[in-house]
Amino acid sequence: MNVEDHPLVDDVNAIHQDRLSATERICRRIADATGAPLALVLAIVLQLVWLAVGTVTHWDPFPFVFLLTCSNVIQLILIFVIAVAQKQQTQHDEIRAESDHDTISRLLYHQQVQDELLLRLAERAGVDIADIKPEVAALGV
Length: 141
Description:
By secondary structure, the protein is mainly α. It has helices at residues 12-19, 22-34, 37-57, 65-124, 133-139.
């Protein structure tokens, strides 16, 4: 039996994906792509090539105003895209925390029921459980 198929276990990732709008999904993909090491390498290479070509051809000479303008516009857009992605991550974390709390609560209740059942079985079997019973009761508090 697969744990994810259990009726009492929530698939937090599926719940989170179902709650995302189309815009949020796009922002998430952009944030994931721009956060990759390949994006950093491409940005560095692109700027180095731009600097070399701009200097040699005088198309965008020092202080590279067009490069700075393009870079600033891209950065302003990415600030908002990353903010949306972080908000999504926070929502995902909240869903996971609620699911974990529910699951742990069910597990603890199940454990208490098992403890009580074992104590009853021990009593019926004639085992002296007088020394254990207060400890089990203290755990339930």
